[in-house]
Amino acid sequence: MANALRLRRGTTVQHASFTGLEAEVTVDTTKDTIVVHDGSTAGGIPLAKESQATTNVAITGGSITGITDLAIADGGTGASTAAAARVNLLPSLTSNGNKAVYVNSGATDIEYRTIVTLTDGDKGDITVASSGTSWTVDSGVITPAKMSQPITRMTSQNAASTSFVTFTSIPSWIKRITLCLNGISTSGAVNVLVRLGDAGGIETTGYTSGSSRLDSSSLASTTSTSGFLLNSSNAGYSLSGVITIANTSGNIWLASGSVSYSGGTITCAGDKTLSDVLTTVSVLPVSGTFDAGSINIIYD
Fold first, then answer.
1. Do the beta carbons of residue 257 and residue 240 sit within 8 Å?
2. Which phi and psi angles does 213 have, rounded to 5°?
3. Residue range(s) of every CATH 2.60.120 domain in the chain
4. What residues pair up with 99 in beta bridges, in sequence order?
5. How buried is residue 271: exposed, middle or buried, by Cβ count under 10 Å (0-12/13-18/19+)?
């Protein structure tokens, strides 16, 4: 009768806690494979079976060392470090500093695109395609002071005991001035004028202006060529209201507004073509001084 050789055997679980002698061989009955031992490794070293397909190897743990870098064409990176892999897989880094990786329009490859950076003082428009996402800006971020051409209220000036109130250094880009009169009155029974100025000074001629005063019993109108006119003509009137002075084109300015007093309303309108860009607004009684009130302007 032939003799049979039977090796020590056990399951994969049993092998995990077993350390065989050097050169000892056992059988893993779970994997149906031979396990070679080296006297120190728990579980030994299982051998591959002939049935294991060389083109379909499942690696479930551990690490692989000492092999040649796998070529990109074979699904690898052609490198053994992350930095070298990036060089191999991405477009050339040369001359592409501070650029972003961008997927091309055909979604077939990647390329580098310059990053558009915004710095303090940059100006321009944000263009969004009709099918794009709407852009919104936090209202707390964009304040008038941060705009290149902000709505600006100047410092209110006390008119009492002055023969005129003048606002200077008005920016060249403005297109509208809102003149605010708060309880002004004159020392005599005279009208009030609003005059404009440019680099050549305040202009006192060339205005086309008319004003009407309406109270409960009468209507009085008058005109002036020396300024935008308020037909007040009474020292007892305390005038409060707003006059808008708007730039229609070039150096042509149009004025329109109304003020009230205890007995009625005064309206005014007119136009003036300056010889240069507007820089100054002045308010004054035809003669004498103001004796009460304050004046300010808002421009945009």
1. no
2. -115, 120
3. 152-299
4. 114
5. middle
Q: How far apart are CA 171 and CA 279, in angstroms?
A: 7
Q: How is 193-245 classified by DSSP, letter by letter?
A: EEEEEETTEE--S--EEEEEEEESS-EEEEEESSSEEE----TT--EEEEEEE
Residue 283 identity (one-letter amino acid): V
Dihedral of the CA atoms 16, 17, 21, 26 (nearest 10)? -50
Q: Which of 4, 290, 29 is nearest to 157 (CA)?
A: 290
Domain range 7-62, CATH class: mainly beta
CATH number of the structural domain 152-299:
2.60.120
Buried b (16+ CB within 10 A) or exposed e, 89-98: eeeeeeeeee
- In which residue are the tokens 């070039």 written? 250
Pairing of strands 264-273, 176-186: unpaired
pLDDT value, residue 241:
97
Provide the sign of the torsion angle of the four alpha carbons 286, 162, 239, 156, taken in this order: positive
- pLDDT tens-digit readout, 61-80: 777 777 788 888 888 888 88
Work out the pLDDT band at 115, boundaries 50, 70, 90. Answer: confident
